[in-house]
Structure formats: C-alpha cells, structure tokens
Write a structure and sequence with these properties.
Helices cover 36% and strands 15% of the residues. The chain is α/β, with parallel strands linked by helices. The strands form 5 sheets. Strands 16-13-12-11-10-9-18-17 form an 8-stranded parallel sheet, sandwiched between helices. A 4-stranded mixed sheet has the order 2-3-7-6. It has a two-stranded antiparallel ribbon with strand order 1-8. Helix 10 (292-305) links the parallel strand 11 and strand 12. The longest helix is centred in the N-terminal third of the chain and has 19 residues, at 140-158. The chain is elongated.
C-alpha cells in the first residue's frame, strides 16, 4: 500500500497516474499513445524526446500558489500562468495537472486524519479544500482535463495525428433524483410526534403556526378511509406531471427501512406506475448499513417488490463515510451510487461534473461502481435556508454556467417530503420554475440508466 501523506506530499504511484489517465481518455479519441509519448518527470530531461507531452512531477504538498483564469492549481511547478507551451513538436505543461486532478477526483483529502466529519462520519464542506479555496461551485478537475485535452490536441496537430474531442453528453445535463423518505403522513406516530413538537416536547422542524395547521389536517384524516391523493407526501403523480411538461425524467430511490413497507400494495403500485412513465427506481439504503451482505439483502427486497427496479443506490442521509462502503456496494452487484456530495453545502465534492469511478486507496485501483456525484441537495439549498426566487436562480445559474462549458452533469436531489404543502406551500411551483429555468439552458435530463449507457459507450476509450 502506498503511504498516505498529508496534502499528498509525495509522488504519485503508477496506479494513481493511470487512474487519472483513464478518466482523461473519456474526453478524447486520438492518435496520442500514452505509453510512448507521455513523459512525467521531476524536471525536463536534457534529452527530451523530440515528440512528447511532458508533465512536471511534484512531490510537495498542495499549495495552490498559482491560478490560471481564476482556477487554482493545487500542485504548482512554476510561476507561469499558461497551462502549456510548445517545444518543437513537443508540448510542455507548466504544472502538475495529473497530481492536482488525482487529489480532488480520488477524494484524497478525505483520508487525512484531520478531515472534518460529523457524528455520522460524513465528510463536511467546512474545512475541505473546496471551502478553503472557495471552489465548491467549480468543477476544477474538468478545467485541468480541458487544458490537458487542448495540449494533446495541439500535439496531435504538430505531429499529424488524428484527434477528436469527445463529450460525455450532447448537452449540459440535469440528473433529477428523489428520495422517498417517510410516506405515512396520517399514521399515528407522525401525528403524535407533530403535536409533541407543537407543545415544545420535541424540537420543531418548521414554524409552529404551519405545524399546527398540518397536524390538525393529519388528525382529521386519521379517522377517514385512507386516500393517498390527500397525503402531502404522496407526490409521485404531481412531480412526474411537472417533469413531463419539460420532457424530463428522474430517478426515485425507495427506502427499505422507513415508515412504509416495500411489500405494501400501494407502494408496489406506485413504483410500477413511476417506472411505466420512464423513470428509474433505485434503492435508498439505510444509513447504518455498510457491509456487502446487508446491501445484497436490501437490494433483493426492492427487486422482489418492484421487478422494474435497477441496481442503483443512494445511502440514506448521504451517510457515505468512505470508499469501503462503495466497495461493499460493488461486491453486492450495485452498479451505480448517487450519494457522494456535501451534506452541509451545495457543490462538487470531487470538483468534477461528470460521473466517475471512485478510487480505492487501500488496494490502489479504480472501483467498478459508477459514482454520479450529487451537487445540489434540497436540505442545503431550500430547507431551513429559505431563498427568495432570485437567490435560488443565482445559485442555479452559477452551476449551470459551469456545466455548460463541458456539457457536464448536475445531479439534484429533492425528497418527497420537501413537497409537503404545509411545510413548503409553494414547493410545486418552485420546482416547476426550477425546471423551466433548466429548460431555458437547453439541458437534457437523462435517467440514471441513460447515464450508465453513455459511460459504457466510452468504456473502451477509458480502459
């Protein structure tokens, strides 16, 4: 195992270098041979090959002492503010973009002993490199890759080689997702808990006036025949109707351990109806499970009750504390995870706006499970952080402008309980306005399955 040093103050190992190269290959199809023309050394050799692409190799910890066009370079090798220059038929890069990309994409900072985590073990934005450099909203790795791509493209022109720029998606894309948390609004336990909050016995989660109105409504419904259409948490048809207006689809993660049972007839029917309209169904796994056997069991339970469900997973409460959990998901034949995001802030946790394959630092290899990183979570954008519509659009515009540069992907989470008409009376309208705003950027909204198909299509280039 390679020694893990603070701030990555060492040279990269061959497998770490290969990890970055494998992701670079998905954005280019060209005659550049990495095994022959790629030179990664401490300094430019006296006998630099007449036709190569040279990167300076850094053994120092990250410093971000230089930025290029506002993008900080984590591992700098000079004071130059140009990514590269020509040297005969060779291209010479001025900074160690390979190591800079690896540090962010591989979640290296999360290995460090002083990494800031909450009581659930979740890595936090506060104290992260993204917070220190104010880059959470910038897919910095995509910028590094784009500079490398431009350098290799120039090398191909100088050396008469074929080059084609490849984007993962034809247009900037929004990955819409919904966690189906609690569903039994009229259940006695929910009503009792709500009145406990109103009376000050428990901590209240929104205004007492709104809560009182909600619990009066819930108490009345308890004594009527159950009708899910009157249930503020039963949002499926309304949300899908809004999304269909813009020709968008989404992915719904159903829980195996919440206040509903996957085997209940109305839940099974709801999952079938969602799938029949073109949306994906995945597993919202309990936050406390971490081992392969449990992941397999919960995935099988979902499959038994929804034959249309797919091996996609999100950890409840985004409780992903490390790559070991992703390894266990992979061992249980889960194909995609959608949990990797900051729980306490909007932003790109890996500074990357494409799906990627996480890196297993312990075994020095790339995992086979695909990660679709979560950038915008309703709990850190809307809930308890009330934004007026103009502020909301400012945040969305900031991220849309970034992904548009790379035809990147922005993954967004809105839980079903967020649409509670008592807690957030205007949420359906807000969501419709959000989607309309997205559509004005001419984005696509691929399902998780469509993202997977696109990644498979570039798999040959990556590996």
């Amino acid at each position: 195992m390679v020694e893990q040093k603070p701030r990555l103050a060492r040279f990269l190992s061959p497998s770490e270098i290969q990890y970055v190269i494998s992701h670079l290959r998905q954005i280019m199809d060209c005659g550049f041979d990495w095994k022959v023309h790629f030179v990664y050394e401490n300094s430019i050799p006296e006998s630099l090959p007449s036709s190569c692409v040279f990167f300076p190799k850094s053994s120092a910890g990250w410093d971000a002492a230089v930025n290029i066009d506002g993008i900080p370079i984590l591992f700098t090798s000079s004071c130059k503010v140009e990514p590269f220059y020509e040297f005969g038929k060779s291209i010479v890069f001025n900074h160690d973009f390979i190591k800079s990309a690896f540090f962010l994409l591989s979640s290296y900072q999360e290995l460090e002993e002083d990494a800031n985590r909450d009581s659930m073990g979740r890595f936090l934005y506060e104290g992260s490199v993204q917070q220190k450099l104010n880059i959470a909203h910038i897919p910095v790795v995509n910028y590094y890759f784009d500079w490398i791509r431009k350098g290799i493209e120039r090398w191909c022109i100088l050396n008469g080689k074929f080059f084609k720029y490849v984007t993962l998606f034809r247009n900037p894309s929004i990955h819409l997702t919904h966690n189906v948390n609690n569903l039994r609004y009229f259940r006695g336990a929910n009503v009792i808990r709500g009145w406990g909050e109103i009376l000050g016995i428990k901590e209240i989660d929104y205004s007492r006036k709104k809560k009182t109105k909600a619990m009066v409504y819930a108490a009345k419904q308890m004594f009527r025949t159950i009708d899910n259409e009157r249930n503020p948490w039963w949002v499926f048809s309304k949300v899908q109707s809004i999304e269909s207006c813009f020709d968008f689809n989404s992915t719904w993660f159903f829980a195996s351990q919440y206040d509903y049972n996957l085997s209940e007839p109305d839940i099974r029917s709801a999952m079938h109806q969602i799938s029949s309209k073109g949306d994906d169904i995945g597993l919202l796994s309990p936050s406390e499970i971490t081992n392969t056997k449990e992941y397999t069991s919960h995935k099988s339970l979902l499959r038994e009750n929804c034959i249309e469900s797919l091996p996609y997973c999100r950890q409840s409460k985004l409780a992903i504390s490390g790559v070991d959990q992703l390894y266990n998901m992979e061992q249980s034949n889960i194909m995609v995870d959608c949990s990797w995001g900051f729980v306490d802030h909007v932003g790109f946790r890996n500074s990357y706006c494409y799906p990627f394959y996480p890196y297993d630092h312990k075994h020095q290899c790339s995992l086979g499970i695909l990660e679709i990183p979560l950038a915008i979570n309703d709990s850190n954008l809307l809930i308890d952080k009330v934004l007026d519509i103009e502020q909301l659009y400012e945040v969305l515009e900031q991220y849309l402008d970034q992904i548009r540069k790379f035809n990147g992907l922005l993954s967004v989470l809105l839980r079903n309980t967020t649409f509670d008409e008592f807690k957030n009376p205007d949420m359906y309208k807000t969501y419709e306005d959000m989607l309309r705003y997205f559509s004005q950027y001419q984005v696509d909204a691929p399902t998780t399955t469509e993202v997977v198909r696109r990644m498979i299509s570039v798999g040959g280039q990556m590996f």
